[in-house]
Write a structure and sequence with these properties.
alpha/beta; 325 residues; 13% strand; 7 strands; seven-stranded mixed beta sheet; globular; 12 helices
């Protein structure tokens, strides 16, 4: 596991977050400003990448025909992931499964043996059980049951993460993988929700600007019809959006920096939506249940218990800033 340099003390010292992602680059496009924020303010943040991204295409026209990419795409993506982790200031762990790719059709029929999607769930969860027990995160983030979007590795990452959280807490499950650890909260990454981009689109039009999302409005609307997403938690992270962008650009094989969607939606988000959204999926903090309304939290660590048993304030950073002031 790659560990960053010595962590600076900060208001989130003593708090730990594990972000589970399917491929290198997912950590930089989903929840990246949030993880960068927590790491910068003292939390121990670890990104676990389930696959090596070996099946990824070269999506940056500037690298088409690159000998390095043709010869060793897996090695190149490992280098990109290391660079992104440094930018975000997070620790990083490769889980080690093979990228399933994205077939056009039934996953169960078309995917070959040996890829992540094909690994039995109980086997695929074992490395995460060990990682959870070793790192002891209070909070875990992953994807919803649809994978955020229908990629087999994203769907599998959801299944495996939820199973690993359950088994990590069970003293009778895989005792050889370490002492049991109960994760207190699990969140689904939802900062690419359709409602978010529809709201940005409308705000841009109201300001007389051309929206980069106009051609995708039907797609965003379909996402919201397919699954009702509870945007329970909106983390303010505007000061880390540039960090997120630099991390994403570290994945040069996957990102065209001149691409319309990258340039357009990132620039729009800086002005119109300096937040990242998450859906509370599991809450074992012992607090009163949250009302099922959007944007009722602003901190993934709200109300979790420190190792000492003390409860984290609802907005820790705001509380610490008020005390300091």
């Amino acid at each position: 596991m790659h560990k960053r340099e010595a962590r600076q003390p900060g208001p989130y010292a003593g708090l730990r977050l594990l972000a589970v992602h399917a491929h290198p680059d997912d950590e930089s496009s989903k929840g990246a400003a949030t993880t960068a924020k927590y790491a910068a303010f003292g939390a121990q943040v670890t990104v676990a990448t389930m696959t090596g991204g070996e099946a990824g295409d070269i999506l940056n026209p500037a690298l088409e025909g690159s000998p390095a990419a043709i010869r060793d795409i897996a090695g190149l993506r490992r280098e990109e992931m290391a660079a992104a982790a440094r930018v975000l200031g997070v620790d990083h762990a490769w889980v080690g499964y093979v990228d399933s790719g994205l077939p056009d059709g039934d996953f169960d029929e078309l995917l070959p043996k040996g890829v992540f999607y094909r690994v039995p769930d109980d086997v695929a969860a074992r490395p995460l059980v060990e990682l959870i027990r070793r790192l002891r995160p209070q909070v875990v983030t992953t994807y919803d049951e649809l994978g955020g979007y229908p990629h087999p590795d994203h769907i599998k990452a959801h299944i495996v993460t939820m199973l690993a959280v359950e088994r990590a807490a069970d003293p009778d499950a895989n005792p050889e993988l370490g002492e049991p650890w109960q994760v207190q909260k699990v969140y689904y990454n939802q900062d690419l929700s359709g409602r978010k981009f529809l709201a940005i689109h409308e705000r841009m039009l109201a300001d007389g600007l051309e929206s980069p999302f106009a051609e995708r409005l039907d797609w965003f609307a379909e996402r919201d019809r397919e699954r009702h997403t509870w945007l329970s938690t909106s983390v303010p992270c505007g000061e880390f959006i540039d960090v997120r962008d630099r991390a994403l650009l570290s994945h040069a094989t996957q990102i065209d920096p001149n691409g319309g969607f990258f340039a357009g939606h990132r620039e729009a988000a800086k002005k119109y939506w300096p937040y990242e959204e998450f859906e509370l999926a599991l809450d074992l903090t012992g607090r009163e249940p949250l009302p099922h309304e959007d944007f009722v939290e602003s901190d993934l660590f709200a109300d979790v218990l420190y190792d000492s048993g003390e409860r984290v304030p609802a907005d820790l950073l705001m509380v610490r800033q008020e005390v300091a002031g």
